[in-house]
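Q: I have 433 residues here and want to know how they pack in 3D. Can you give me a structure?
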Amino acid sequence: MPSRSISRRTFLKRAATGAAALAPAIIPAAALGADGAVAPSNRIALGFIGTGSHGVGMNLKNFLPHGDAQVVILCDVDQFRVRNALNITAKHYSQRGCATTGDFREVIARDDVDAVVVSTPDHWHVIPAVLAARAGKDVFCEKPLTLTVHEGRVLSDTIRRHDRIFQTASENRSKWNFLRAAELVRNGRIGRLETIRTQLPVDKTVKYANGRIHPPQPVPHDLDYDMWLGQAPWKPYTEGRCHYHFRWILDYSGGSLTDWGAHVNDVAQWANDTEYTGPVRVEGRGVFPREGLYNTATEWEIAFEYANGVRLICTDGTPLIRFEGADGWIQCEWDSFEASSPAIANAVIGPEEIHLRTCPEREQRDFLNCVKTRRPTYAPAEVGHRSITLSHIGNIAMMLGRKLRWDPDLERFINDDTADGMLSRSMRAPWRL
């Protein structure tokens, strides 16, 4: 990592400047723990890295209501987004504001930050998470968790080595229908599991907008574009490259296969009891745009084979997951649950059977609970890494156009140096793992 640092005096001056204008003259009693509120000494101090639409809409707004969490600093390379997040935070805390910065390293350097919430574009997930873990911070990180398989292995090993609490921000493991399906499958209610079918939607931007010209544009004055690019190759700024649409550019993400695969294929791994391993074979075909800014797959069909004989077939389409067994099937769309018979749909899971780890109050509450208890979250780093590995090796199989054998223990392809070379990427200086 670059060794850029700031002095404590400089840091404190910046932090004071960011918060002074919003600091009230009188501290409310609730802030001191009166009237049932959580005292500041018992709160988990959070630093937010990334305050875009997901960082604010899914994470900031879902962490703020928890009285045992305290947002102390907000970070984004886009200062417009930081200001928006600061306004929301100040309103929630009745004008008791927090610090802001454009450099995530200042968040990690703070002694008063217990945990970081990483809600950046995909290519910026792992570097802040690794640095935070090395600095003794717990980590809540958005999915798709990684840009490459190699990143995932480094991240998971780092979290384990430094004994940090980590949450892959997957709400699906808290949703009733996916939990119900996974528990029924794990407890044999559809007989021996044979096939899992998943469908992932393709965003209309990447599907229909290719060939559109995206000429270079002046960089907005609020955006630190070089920091936004980070480890990715330098490319001229254009609006269609950055916020939200980065998902459809292979330099920064893996398309809908990673964006939605992190949701749906994670449930497949969960129900198949393979969340700490992976398939042994993969083959697929896909359609990749030949021109235009967006170059992730717009159509695909990928088949994964597991050592237990289960086949996972992933295609583009309406988001759903279907489990097919020797004695019946279960299918879930985003908020629905169906089964092949009432006996399966209404089956009772006994107290001695398998009950999967979840948290009905969602992933943010689960993370806060686990920071306190030091118990693993329902989607720790290794699980998030293994789930998104499916999407990464699926993309590789489609790009190479041939069937590949995968060793889930070594996390390497078998006798295929070309495919192995695609498990990691070089990083633009000064960034590195």
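Q: Anything worth noting?
A: The two ends are 7 Å apart (CA to CA). The chain has a mean pLDDT of 91.
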